[in-house]
UniProtKB/TrEMBL annotation:
Pfam families: LRAT (PF04970)
Ranges that cross the membrane: 196-229
Superkingdom of origin organism: Eukaryota
GO MF assignments: O-palmitoyltransferase activity; phosphatidylcholine-retinol O-acyltransferase activity
Organism lineage: Eukaryota, Metazoa, Chordata, Craniata, Vertebrata
Designated name of the protein: Lecithin retinol acyltransferase
Oxidoreductase recorded as keyword: no
A single GO cellular-component term on record: perinuclear region of cytoplasm
Species this chain originates from: Phocoena sinus
The EC number(s) this enzyme carries: 2.3.1.135
Annotated LRAT domain residues: 50-177
Role: Transfers the acyl group from the sn-1 position of phosphatidylcholine to all-trans retinol, producing all-trans retinyl esters. Retinyl esters are storage forms of vitamin A. LRAT plays a critical role in vision. It provides the all-trans retinyl ester substrates for the isomerohydrolase which processes the esters into 11-cis-retinol in the retinal pigment epithelium; due to a membrane-associated alcohol dehydrogenase, 11 cis-retinol is oxidized and converted into 11-cis-retinaldehyde which is the chromophore for rhodopsin and the cone photopigments.
Bilayer topology: Single-pass membrane protein
Length: 230
C-alpha cells in the first residue's frame, strides 16, 4: 500500500523541479533558429551510444540506434488524448511537453538526430566518464532501448530520460540530476532560516487573509515540519 504522505512529498518535489527548470520549456526553445542549420557528424555515432544534449538547467538524453535514429523518453500530453500516430509522431512542442510532465504521460520514441538535439551541441557517452560506471556492450544497450519503445509513465524524479538511458547503458536506472535536486531541497529544509521564513510567511497570510483553518494550520504545520526535519 502506498504511503499518502510520501506520494504528497514526491508530488511537491516534482512540481518544484518543474518550476525551477521552467526556462527549459519557454516558448523560444534553445536553438530554435539554429536547429535548421546545424550539421551533426552522424557517421561518428555508434549504435548504442548515449547522446547527451545540455540545456540551460537540465540535460536531455537518448540512445543512438543507427541510421540517424535516436530513442529517447519524451513527455507528451497528446498521447493521453489520441491514438493517431501521425499526430503523436510529430516533433513534441513545448506546450505538449509541459502538459505531459504535469500529466505524467510520456513515451520512449524514435526521432532523427536533428529533431532530438534541436540545434544544441551533442556529447557522446559523457555519462560513462561522469558516473565512472562500466557500460554494457553497445548492441545490448540499443536492444534494451528498442524493447522499451512505447508509452510509459513519466516522473521528473523517478522515471525521466536519464533513468531510461542509464538503465539501457549500465543496467541500473539512476538520475544524478534528480538526486542533485533532492539534495538541494534537503539543504534548504535543514537550514533553520527556512523555519523562520515559513513562520513569517504564515503570520503574514493570517494577517492578510484572516484567522481561518486554511491559513492557521499551514502557518503552524509547515514551520513545525521544517523544524523537525532540520
Amino acid at each position: 500500500m502506498k504511503n499518502p504522505m510520501l506520494e504528497a512529498v514526491s508530488l511537491v518535489l516534482e512540481k518544484l523541479l518543474l518550476i525551477s527548470n521552467f526556462k527549459l520549456f519557454s516558448s523560444g526553445a534553445p536553438g530554435e533558429d539554429k536547429a535548421r542549420n546545424t550539421f551533426y557528424e552522424i557517421n561518428s555515432f555508434l549504435r548504442g551510444d548515449v547522446l547527451e544534449v545540455p540545456r540551460t538547467h537540465l540535460t536531455h538524453y537518448g540512445i543512438y540506434l543507427g541510421d540517424n535514429r535516436v530513442a529517447h523518453m519524451m513527455p507528451d500530453i497528446l498521447l493521453a488524448l489520441t491514438d493517431d500516430k501521425e499526430l503523436t509522431q510529430k516533433v513534441v512542442s513545448n506546450k505538449r511537453l509541459i502538459l505531459g510532465v504535469i500529466g505524467r504521460v510520456a513515451s520512449i520514441r524514435v526521432d532523427t538526430v536533428e529533431d532530438f538535439a534541436y540545434g544544441a551541441d551533442i556529447l557522446v557517452n559523457n555519462l560513462d566518464r561522469s558516473l565512472k560506471k562500466k557500460a554494457l556492450l553497445n548492441e545490448e544497450v540499443a536492444r534494451r532501448a528498442e524493447k522499451l519503445l512505447g508509452m510509459t509513465p513519466y516522473s521528473l524524479l523517478w522515471n525521466n530520460c536519464e533513468h531510461f538511458v542509464t538503465y539501457c547503458r549500465f543496467g541500473t536506472a539512476i538520475s544524478p540530476q534528480a538526486d542533485k535536486f533532492c539534495e538541494n531541497v534537503k539543504i534548504i529544509i535543514r537550514d533553520q532560516r527556512s523555519v523562520l521564513a515559513s513562520a513569517v510567511l504564515g503570520l503574514a497570510s493570517i494577517v492578510c487573509l484572516g484567522l481561518a483553518s486554511y491559513t492557521t494550520l499551514p502557518a503552524i504545520f509547515i514551520p513545525f515540519c521544517l523544524w523537525m526535519a532540520g
